[in-house]
User: Fold these one by one.
Assistant:
Number 1:
Amino acid sequence: MSENKLEVGRPYPLGATWEGAGVNFALFSEHAESVELCLFDALGQHETARIPLCNRSGRIWHCFLPTARPGTVYAYRVKGPYLPRQGHRFNPQKLLLDPYAKSLVSEVKWEDVLFGYRQGGRQEWRLDGTDSQQAMAKCVVIDPTFNWENDRQPKVPLSDTVLYELHVKGFTQLNPLVPAELRGKYLGLTVPSVIDYLKNLGVTTIELLPCQSFLSERALQDKGLSNYWGYNPLAFFAPERRYAVRDATVEFKTMVKKLHVAGIEVVMDIVFNHSAEGNELGPHLSFRGIDNKVYYQLDPEDARQYRNFSGCGNTLNTEHPQVLMLMMDCLRYWARDMHVDGFRFDLASSLARRDGRFDASGSFFNIIHQDPVLSHLKLMAEPWDFESDGYQLGRFPSGWSEWNDKYRDTIRAFWRGEGGQLGPFASRFTGSSDIFANKVREPTASINFITAHDGFTLHDLVSYQHKNNDANLEHNRDGGIDNDSWNCGEEGEVDDPALVALRDQQKRNLLATLLLSQGVPILLAGDEYGRTQGGNNNAYCQDNETSWMRWNWGPRESELQGFVRRLIALRRQQPVFRRRHLFDGLPQDKGECDHIWLRADGSAMTAGDWLDFRARAVGLMLNGRYSGQCDAGGRPLPGDHLLVLINGHHEGLNFRLPPPLDGALWQQVFDTAEVQVSALPMYFGSQDLYPLQGRSIVVLMERVVHRS
């Protein structure tokens, strides 16, 4: 390319930026000796030019190319030392993706040429000189303009949020009401029937499994499988193309805009803990060849090896300011340019390590806290990683919410009938104060879940005692062994009406507990009607009907879905179920408490009662005058007085009801032992005995009844 067509350009912003009269290219590499910008035809098949980047500002290589336009296909080659023992793995024969690439074209093909070292045994110290461009994806310059039509984020308060975890493809792939060409795509989530389904269900916020461009591992492809979930990122800024009809960026934005119009938020599950390049024997795709020593955490005693806090072979080096900058730029891009409403950080403990140790006051948290864009979003952490000290539930800073696996484990154990769970159950149901109160955190610090993409679905949780992962072709060795599941007496699918009814009742128990607990509930897509994966508790590689949502429900599935709708509506109507502050149990201005725990005889629970290993039943009276919520003017928002009766034992009992706080009667709202709500309201008075069935949860509401 002639010199008069190439200008100096600027070091910022990093990446390829369309400026209306050309494109600015900027790439960070601290240890590179030279950098070449490679241009390709529109399909990324043929290289058309190599442009040495002769301009360098500090550690950023840059140029401005007036002839480049949106749609220009490019990548990089970076020259430097190949000294693995010193942490350097440069190889100019390997084509590399821009870390700031916002769109990709062509596919990564798993061929030996992708690897920077010679294949055949552990020879990573021997440089491979084979060109990789024909096996590599390439980057595409985008036009960032988009008509957002005054898009406004719903900004649902965290206390009012009901999360719904779904997979973009799996949610609509089998939906007959979605046009065939849109099924499994971002645009499939914009179809009116799909949006109506979400709204009618009552969810406020969808949490998308990873939508950053990702790569299926070679071992999976060799088996004829693929990475379905997407937790193997290839390009952090680029929306995954397999969910697009044509333009992934435009279609992702369209999806967000349409959902916002419907009042539904979009949260992304984002993966920063590792990249698809894997361990020291992995391929050269991007970071490894641009500046391995900067982008990855290396073993301080042997720089050939990677510190593997992620369990996926490598861990990004969040201690380096440039890597932190990359992450923050990425988050701002998804928030500001793509309008997402928040993030769930996969293996978040790995992002906050300093000198290998978790640091709750580290740079990652501090930068987000002071950022004017990011600090106001929903920020949710998976509070662990794969190191021995990686489990950090309750230690994340104020303003963060955490996936509470202790909630999951306790609720599962209680409803499967284990002893000694009554006290832990009560703590989880009321916001896990034992975990969060000492950090002066709110109930919304706890993301409550019973099922998620990883593990059994709700139906399988009550149908399988053991995992059934043979389809993953790992001889059933993958996936968790201890699932706290209970098959209700027989493994797998059954026809016995009594067993089917018991399983359905257990589903209602688990769902009612989840949606009425203090904290932020997250519902796994499909649990509302009883989706099954056939006992597979690790369906990460099952891009088929094992994982996809079914839309042909029978009467039982429809009844369960209706029950979930009623639960979410009850949560929305009653502020006492979505408090902004933890219960304190202390007498308030009228000498009343915000809540009281009750024994089956109607008296208050004592310390000894909580320690009774055999105890399975308890009542919780919630005072609506102290709901912990305020209206728009900051005044306390009163609700109804409610009574929740819980029995985890297989035998029923008569529960003596306490006096209503305002001298009224108790009206039954629902009883999980009943498939349908009674057509006629059922009322109970003070000291009446409520027939609390085995394995059931009941909600009663105080009502004034005028009798003729």
Number 2:
Amino acid sequence: MSLFLAVDGGATITRAGLYAADGTLLREAAGAPCNPVEYGVDACVSVLLSLSRILAENTVAARISDHNTGGFAAGISGAKQEALRDEIARAVCRKMPVARAAVTDDLHPILYANAGACDALLVIAGTGSSVLAQAADGRSVIVGGRGRLFGDEGSAYQIAVTGLRAASYAVDGMGRDTRLAAALPFAAGVETFAGLVSWSASASKQQVAALASTVDALAAEGDAVARECVVEQAQRLAEQTSAALGRLAMPRTAACYLNGGVFSQSGLFLDAFRGALARRWPEAKPEFPRLLGHRAVLALAMTQAQLPEWVSVHAYDSADGEAAAESGEDAASTRSRDVPVAFTDRAVCLDRLTAIRIVEEMNREDKRVAEVVARGAPEIARAIEAVVQAFGRGGRLIYVGAGTSGRLGVLDAAECTPTFGVPRDKVIAVIAGGSRAIVESVEGAEDDVEQAVKDIDSIAPGVCARDVVVGIAASGRTPYTLAALHRARAKGAGSVLLCCNPMQESVADVTIALETGAEVLPGSTRLKAGTATKMVLNMISTGALALSGYVYEGRMAGVRPTNSKLRGRAIGIVRDLTGLSSSDAERMLQAAGGSIPVAMIMARKGTDAASAASLLEKAGGRLREALEKD
């Protein structure tokens, strides 16, 4: 089995992913930064080797000694010079059993993976900053990104430096008072502001950049000086972005991608950047790229085509062995560090951990899920809007899935009626293997494409253009789900694919691809993938029903009081939204037959239950519309 190692060498941390030939992420590892300019080529290569060994731990490996299989690619911060890239690529081929090593900087792979050869820009705001612009004709330019001496405008490092200088001016009586003067020493771990001077003499770029979060926090709390520090750097980065666009005379319809911790962690910075950029480039539509980190680099490791000129490629041959000998490394010592390129897919040996370690390991992975879902927000919103339109046409939301994915669809559909009061045929779910599959595994059901077609055709009334079908498949490749989705599209229905793997081609009108990464128990999609899927289904159904009139003033106006708990909740909703006492709200609800919307209309308009129900029906069940009508 051929495996591929992809490395994202950022300015603060290096992350590596081990992938199967089908693009499945098997295992991840993280290590020290590997910038060859900051730390040297030897240190850079040492980090790469260390990560490769970590990925090989606790696995059953078939070591490859003939260098005929496997691929390696790395996008490394600071590796802009061809000579540096060449040296790293040669060293990798000497020390790892890979057929080919591809090395480039940390910017190009993101554009390569997300935009292909189209006109596009990538704006980085992390520990450092820079702007990469590429034209469709192959030209490219990098603006900024020259390190701390030249400023790194818009970076965490420069935000911190600006904050330190502003605090210094305040301490010396040369500038306005700011809480930065007290907060920054504390964040750096020194007792006084004067102590920052000696601290700065030995502080790394990463340690200085870490202070940016303190500047941003004070800005959010209203410190005017801190706010100016953040906004100023956002504006300067916007200037660089505009300059990059102009240098290549690119069309103003070019795509613009944003990446880096400053963008993702500082709402103030993001808003200020977008505002400043809009003044210079009104057509710009900045967005976060779908493929990031080592997942973006993977395309360079796996492609068989000729790689772009900004990639240094070195293929293994016998000269590498000779080079190792000349440098004092014999073949045996080199082989002893060989990286396994065929592994079992075990990411963590859970059976070797204590109970508390298992909890910690799983919790660490689960923390990433919300961030992954957040990156899919635009596509999730599009799905919600599609379902709202379907409901407006009298259509339905139909979930389709197999296994865990199917069960999650069944769960979400089942909760819609008691939560929102929608008819049971408004949100429905189809699961491979039928109702038996809800409680037990039905072997082969997920591969039965013929049954998928039959299941879609058996839905009554028939699936049509009024409906939206959401296919749920963690892998994005489940035959049953894709066949069902294809059949629904053939009948004119809107389509959404929800998966937890990047998709190269869209098979639906809307594709929500969440890259949740390797599971602590590989192959078990009920873990991170399941959690992410449940979150998105919550958003789709709740968002669509809220926008379709089943939520009023933030309350579950359609909830059906079928038990004592729900009766109490319904009484409270009527009481809070009408100003009635609890006893009067209860009587009104009883007169309305338990319908909160009918009770609300009765109370607001002074009508009887029949008249209120008629008004609600004329408004299509939308309480707000019924209440606002004269």
